[in-house]
Amino acid sequence: MFLSFRADVAAALSDALSALDVEPTDPGIEDPPESVDAVLASSVAFRLAAEVGAPPPEIAGDLAAEIDPTEYDYIESVSQSGPYVNFHPSPAYYDDTLQAAGDEGFGRLDAKDETVVVEHTSANPTGPVHVGRARNPIVGDAIANVLDFAGYDVSRHYYVNDAGRQMAVFTWAYETFAESDLPDPERERGDYDLVRYYRKGNEFLDEASESERANAEDEISAILEGLEAGDEATYERVEAVVDGVLSGMRESLARLPVDFDEFVKETRFIRDGSTDDLVARLKDTEYAVYEEDAWQLELPSFEKNLVFLRSDGTSLYTTRDLAHHEWKFDNFDRAVTVLGEDHKLQAEQLRETLSILGNDTDKLDSVYYSWINLPEGGMSTREGTGVDLDDLLDESIERAREEVESRLDSRIRDDELDEEDVARIARQVGIGAVRYDIVAKQPAKSITFEWERALDFEAQSAPYVQYVHARTCGILSEAQRASGGRAVPPRDDEAEEADDAPEIVDASELTTAEERELLEVIARFPAVVERAADELAPHVVATYTRTFAEAFNAFYRECPVLSADGEVRRQRLALVAAARRTVANALGLLGVAAPESM
């Protein structure tokens, strides 16, 4: 309802400006000052002062007097406070919010005729996913969730580097060294098994004699040349390693959970000829030069040239990624890529090159993220391997379980939790804590992950918000047991309706400050989705969930639900049901589970 209310406010201001013979301008719609009891305000009077030749408070008063609230569905009244015009919602705003928020898809925006491909993670398949890169799948998945909820047709892609030197080294090492040459794998899974060959191969290249290294480099070069030439046998050799590692990486990512619609391999753009075509087109541009035994582009905006073809005729990662992006432009209306900050220069060069080739780069958005750090002594690390995502998730679940078990005796709910329940809750809370703590920060800001903060049930963390959902479930479950049927009982005039008929609710009895505040926060959820999608900023949703949790907890403290009587009880139960749906959907956008019991 907030979006409709905002539209009414915009229309009212436009009509008032026209009535006062003032040229249309930015209406300056914003949140009112905390001291003002309104849902929206306008600061347009500041912008008009010079044009009108009057002080802002006088202009604001004239605008407020000009607006007739009865002409708009959701405006109850308009007031002036200094230079601000303040807008107060009608009873229909609260009634419709309560009704709409009971629907399963509350917050989902209308479908848009626009396809978006979100590429994220895309870590090289050389071993298990590392903690330092864990921000990519978490942020990328949340962006895809938000865009989907905002009505876009979203495809989630992982771009697989299966054609570069790293994969040639990996393939050579896998075919060269025996199992007996390797240490035991850290876990019984494909990525942990195969990464031992990659580490052994790099160790050999670092320590081998000159002749041994030369022989190895010849074999590695032959693999690269075979890929570039389209040799099927070479593809199959590399694919055996790539797919084996990817299978394990996918298991790690599934724990978050993160899944993909397609794994797009860069060899695809060698094999279909698009890389060769792109190279030919680059050579024909005015920016192409052959220097230092390589074809390069002298990009106008960069001091450093972009190398796109080696002297031996083999392409580079960026060359193939250019072909990949043109494929995206051909198949999607918009492309979003989530990248580590260390790839920013490369991505900016890629964008300029795509523009030189005649592509509309307005279709391309890049989201850059900074690194995740662990506090000193925060986790044990295995020598030479750092901390893998699996290590972080295991420890988070273990710590969450300890916290959950410590609270069992003080639980308000009287439902019995067995071992399976405790394990499930620990997993939901532990993994939720990791995802929430990471996605709640703006991607460009670095993070030091701290267990005490992430798993704090009392602070603004995942468990704090998850507990609100569990509390709503508990209230509704108790109400359903007490009534022997619906959690929100029908009104007297609904008593004859079928059990599955939708409840008709209004908010006429929800008049306390806490009830109205919670309704107003719920009403804003679709606008939060809209903003998060427009800005590719899922942290906006995380911030909203904290505001939501505070509003719900204030309502819970001040407004008894189960002990209330008659229509007040019924409407408060409907408000709890609306709160449950809202917080579940918001957490879902962040990829965080919404436990029914904690």
The shape, in one word, is: flat
Total DSSP helices: 21
The span between the termini is: 31 Å
Averaged pLDDT, please? 92
Radius of gyration: 29 Å
> In percent, how much strand structure appears in the residues?
5-15%
**Regions with pLDDT < 50 over 5+ consecutive residues?**
379-384, 495-501
Which percent bin holds the helix content?
Answer: 40-55%
Tell me the total number of β-strands.
14
The main sheet orders its strands as 7-6-5-11-12
> Which structural class is indicated by helix and strand composition?
alpha/beta
Tell me about the biggest sheet? 5 strands, parallel
In short:
This protein has 598 residues and is α/β, with parallel strands linked by helices.
Would you mind describing this structure in some detail?
The protein is α/β, with parallel strands linked by helices and 598 residues long. The chain has helices at 2-19, 44-52, 56-66, 91-100, 135-149, 165-176, 190-207, 210-229, 232-254, 268-271, 274-283, 317-331, 344-356, 389-406, 419-439, 451-454, 462-483, 513-523, 525-535, 539-558, 566-590, and strands at 29-30, 40-42, 75-81, 84-89, 115-119, 153-160, 262-265, 288-291, 294-297, 306-310, 334-340, 364-369, 372-373, 447-448. A 5-stranded parallel beta sheet has the order 7-6-5-11-12, sandwiched between helices. A 4-stranded antiparallel beta sheet has the order 1-2-4-3. The chain has a 3-stranded antiparallel beta sheet with strand order 8-9-10. Helix 6 packs across helix 8 (210-229), helix 17 runs antiparallel to helix 21 (566-590) and helix 18 runs antiparallel to helix 20 (539-558). The protein is flat and about 85 Å long.
